[in-house]
User: Fold FAD-dependent oxidoreductase from Anaerobacillus alkalidiazotrophicus.
Amino acid sequence: MSKKPRILILGAGYGGMMTASRLSKQLGYNDAEIVLVNKHDYHYQTTWLHEPAAGTLHHDRTRMRIESVIDTNKIKFLKDVVVEIKTAEKKVILESGEMEYDYLVIGLGSEPETFGIPGVEEHAFAIRSVNSVRHIREHIEYKFASYNGSDVKHDEDLTFIVAGAGFTGIEFVGELTERIPELCKEYDIAREKVRIISIEAATTALPGFDPELVEYAMNILEKRGVEFKINTPIKEVTKDGVLLASGEEIKSKTVVWTTGIRGSSVLEKSGFETMRGRIQVEPELRVPGFEDVFVIGDCAIIIDEATNRPFPPTAQIAIQQSSTLAKNIKALVHGSNNLEAFKADIKGTVASLGGKEAIGVVGSKKLFGTPAAAMKKVIDNRYLFLLGGLPLVVKKGKLNIF
Amino acid sequence: MSKKPRILILGAGYGGMMTASRLSKQLGYNDAEIVLVNKHDYHYQTTWLHEPAAGTLHHDRTRMRIESVIDTNKIKFLKDVVVEIKTAEKKVILESGEMEYDYLVIGLGSEPETFGIPGVEEHAFAIRSVNSVRHIREHIEYKFASYNGSDVKHDEDLTFIVAGAGFTGIEFVGELTERIPELCKEYDIAREKVRIISIEAATTALPGFDPELVEYAMNILEKRGVEFKINTPIKEVTKDGVLLASGEEIKSKTVVWTTGIRGSSVLEKSGFETMRGRIQVEPELRVPGFEDVFVIGDCAIIIDEATNRPFPPTAQIAIQQSSTLAKNIKALVHGSNNLEAFKADIKGTVASLGGKEAIGVVGSKKLFGTPAAAMKKVIDNRYLFLLGGLPLVVKKGKLNIF
Assistant:
């Protein structure tokens, strides 16, 4: 009996988890060995992280132990950190060892894109992991406590800057408008003392969204006290705040950076050809020139023929890719070369604005307010259903739909 | 009809609140005008502050709106900060004005005693107000979040130093041993990573307590992972930790200073003769040489004839003083010079060690463990009863006695 081929999946984000889950259902026990490697022993909902970052949802609601969700009879889980991929030797270097593969799935996710702006890495926070959002949540609360605990009051303690008014930035600002009044109460501080500033270099907030939706969102947030600075590039982040391209300085002890992502630095380090750290893959999600290496999620670039631009790095796309990817690997394992090309089926996009407010597009229909907020929760729950069925929806879902 | 004399009470701590409360009951509406000035519009339980500082009790449980407790028909409350007392002009300078008095009660409380050790004011926290304990609570939690939110781990983030193993220091350490395991869970950190270090310059922890009680307390706390460094003077506090007299450095981002108190700096500023910022008063609680100025609580020094040492600056003493003080002011207002001398009646002392553990002396009886912890709560509730009757006990009391 020949050795079972090993499918090695790097990263337990949306793409990695769903690929592992689908493969475990589609492959027989003797077809292949499936190994899933991840830095933490838990999986988390990246698209929910703006909530625990603001402190409006506990982070444990966004994460789950990987081994409690996957079929551990069919998937071997390994908690380790990926250091480098050695394609020539068909192996992966991990922090505490190395592992060979027959088929490799790279789902290592993304890192914040700093655009080379000085000070971002040193002085700004990024919404990117359970650890980082706990840090942001506590940093915000600590600034309230510091303000009141100091004999000399520093207004910059109560100035919160969100750099980037894209999807994540706006969703985070929305949660902040919910959380700040609670913190004001807890720390005996008047709401008017606190500034929430959304800074965007582009000519509009929420670029890519319908202008009517953008206006709705900005109105809602401005009514809740958010100051927008659109068309306002940031030149530098310092320990005291941000310097704008105009020369103006805004003092703040809290800058959260949400201006977009680049692919995992492991890819560049491993010698792959990348664009902003991401690999442009073939329609079958394979890395050009490598028969046995696939990429999924934020690390992969696929051009949307409809727009001639890459699909956005979203959970929706990663989850859809997992379906194509599982089929293709199954085919290879079974000796077929009849691979399927990825086809996106974008059902819509909804951005929450905190509380019962949201905006979105579903099909060709624009949604505002409560219906949009409800749809957002339905989308969040749908993924849990795909991953772990009804029990996971009950355990971790957002059940207060209305 | 001649003008009513004004009794001006500075500070709404134990002494000021209880004096105001007793006077409002003992004096008729036409006898005098009672004015109570305090920095905040709330009164808080100083002796409970080690709990919200550790995060084991919410600070709102330790405070109450002053106007919800006093008889506002008889006492005028003024939220203002005392800047200086001008005895020659019989007036008090406040941050936003000034006020004359016929009788003055100084109950301005205490400030942390640094003993001139460099860096204490700049780098150490003190358990002294609602604002300061919220700051400590959040600082501790923020260090857990920072540890896990940083790519590079800093052990000093998880090292907590309590300088002073006296009453407050030990009670705070006891609460920390309750809180730290919760924080470890919240931030995915192993308990063994966290150090709690109690440093005391004297030759024993809890100086003044019976050695058997001290040993019991230290055993309990050591079992919960506290490291004691007794007979270990601190030379300097820096932004990186503490330097011991021995030359050893202990790195820590959190130093809480509990080595004792001195009187309010307003007293020195106002030209009173002080010892560590406190005024040695006559047995009637009057300032020598001033017929109309009284001192109560931590600002007052009275020598205990039994020990030939000052009574400790405790809530118990301040509350007992309020009884003498109210009687004496009432006598003066009614034209009598027959004043009463303060007599202490120390009923006992109980130090909590966190959770269901405590030690104490009641009368001549030593108490350990659960009975001591229960007695501590009885003492805490007794004050609430004196101040606001049963309704206040029900609202703010520690009702889970066992």
User: Anything to note?
Assistant: Chain A touches chain B through 18 residues (CB under 8 Å). The CA atoms of residues 19 and 122 of chain A lie 35 Å apart. Chain A has two domains: 6-39+80-112+261-344, 115-259+347-402. Residues 369-396 of chain A form the longest helix (28 residues).
